[in-house]
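Lab notes, practical 5.
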Amino acid sequence: MMLMAQARQAATFDPEKLTIVIHDNEETVRSRRAAFHRVESALGLLDNMKLPKVYAGLNREELYLHGLERAAAIMNDMLDHRHRHFEVLNERYQLSNATPFGLNFVMFRKTIELQGTPEQQAYWLPLIDKMQINGAYAQTELAHGSFVRGIETTATFDPATDEFVINSPTLTSTKYWPGAIGLSCSHAIVMARLITQGKDYGVHPFVVQFRSLEDYTPMPGVELGDIGIKMAYNGTCNGYARFNGVRVPRNGLLMAHAQVLRDGSYVRPSADVAYSKLSYATMMYIRGVIVRAASFSLAQALTIAARYSTVREQGLGPNAGLSEEVTVITYKSQHYRLLTLISQAYAILFASKDFDQHYQTLTQQQKDGNHSRLPFTHALSCGLKAWSTTLACAGVEEARKLCGGHGYVAMSGLPEILATVSATVTFEGENYVLWQQLVRYLFQRVDALYAGKEIEPDLEYISQEFPRYFSSNDQPRCPAWGAQLCESDTLLSIFRHRSLRLLAAAHRDFTQAMRQDQMSMPDAWNKCMMEIINAGRAHVDYVALCSFHNRVAMIVESSLKPVLEHLASLFALTTITNPNSSNALSFVEDGHLSLAQLDQMRAHVNDLLVQLYPDIIALTDAWDFTDASLCSAIGARDGNVYERLMAWTRQLPVNQHANEQGGMLVEPWEQTIKPMLRGRL
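Output from the prediction step:
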């Protein structure tokens, strides 16, 4: 379409160069594209005028069978062509647990890799890598999710047989929600309370066989089932599992960090670090995956919204002053919302890349027995997961609204993206719980500073400015003015000031509640909880802005720097000035910024919108989504919104069925409509 072609020609940079930044290198981009083409060809998705099967009114079982078909296509492609492009995100950019095979390589394999002994790894990993078994991860129970310590499933050691006996002692101990356990997995990591010699040692991971590899029926003592239709992820079988005297050999316990000897003795090789913290390894990895997935989910929704906004003509321009209809992207309210959200998608992406580096450093050091970075990395995983999924969930919903009524129909692809990203707010740790875990860590570091101890270099900015914020209420005003308010150093200083001030205030109020008000620690924490959560959010806002600027500074391609620098400034300035941003008031409530400075920031935002407006399509094209991966009638690359929407609508089974019967459905006419119109039901 002409409008879409014009939008692409207006770009100030080559989006292909930014695609390479997003996906790390040119070879990965080429390999990914080839893999997507093969998979989409195998699934019959290359004709984008053909209605995708997922919109064909499938029932619960048909949705699962379609999910199996998709899962088999991507798994076979990875095995045949020896790549990992669909390992953590599938061909629709959903988390891998959206498919029945997706957890085998991620959570199942990763847990064995991180928590199994070399002998256990040597046995299990080849079976996984050859797809001779299909593993899952069963932690969440009917009554316990984020509170892992509350898990009720038991694994009691029986020294007479050298086995653990797995039981679901209560109804609430039923494993409920884990992906693939309903109908698909052969094995699973089961998180259960380890009991030996009469003592409960807390939650540990066990490899448990769920189904026979001969006929795939459930193993003796294992009850399995699907939990039914969800808001999304219906291509897999999130399920339930109950255990009644299920026996697993002693080496079913993953023993890298804790062992049970033949006589039932419990042994901890890494006694210097709490077992519960060492067991975070898989969850930290998955949280990092979720952060990356959040950026792609938001970018998908924005790609659809940007393309639709580019070709959708609506109204006679601002204040109805023109003679012809204009595209909705012309309206400042539309491209302000789009560009603000685009800046957030890139902020999440760059934060995820930095977290990946932190995680890799941790795992490398842990191989040498050095766990010193574990608390920092765990806290960062908590904060980034909560921050990124909160932003992405709100952003995808805003993208849906940007598309008006057409964004509400399932065929736009937006309801599915919204439902998918909504799930990430709660799984792998509910966000309000994770904010608290982050701030609990930060409070511990503040306490260490009070005690005269050194803290991690990663928190150097806290230790350097600690005295000013934690011993005085008299804080400096921001001296920047005019163009300085757009500079990276100024914006980082503003975000850092806000973070430190809120952290200091939350810590002070929490401490006073215990000391002066003589509250217990839990009561004091509960009293100050909203201050605590705001401090956590402010900390991650600052960390994310640091990542954004650091990543832009690393980019070699000079043509990309201006647009990404503008995008980083827009992210920072709209976080401060947008009334819809989380706790925006905290930037100004202490007088650090004046009303005049806020007015200047809003003027800078307007300037940035003018500079970034020509690049809206390029900034979304750069994510390199195929039409099939977007699965959107209104978001395809060619911009043929109306032709595709009507083509897909005509192919809907209900319409085809009606056409076969002369343009109506005979049964409802005879049984309901005709009697109603004749006045008797």
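Observations recorded by the TA: The chain has a mean pLDDT of 94. The first helix runs from residue 2 to 9.
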